[in-house]
Amino acid sequence: MRTAVLLPCYNEAKTIAKVVADFRDEPSTVVYVYDNNSTDDTARIAAGAGAVVVREYRQGKGRVVRSMFRDIDADVYLMVDGDDTYPADEALAMRKFVADGSADMVIGDRLSSTYFTENKRRLHGFGNRLVRFLVNRLFESELKDIMTGCRCMSRTFVKTMPVMSGGFEIETEMTIHALDKGFLLREVPISYRDRGEGSVSKLNTVSDGTRVLGMLVLLFRDYRPMRFFGLVAVALALPAAVMFVVPLNEYLSTGLVTKFPTLIVSIGFGVASMLAFTCGVLLDSIRAQSRRSFEHELTRCRGDVGSRIGTPDR
Question: Which one of 16, 39, 87, 284 is most buried, by most CB atoms within 10 A?
Answer without folding.
Answer: 16
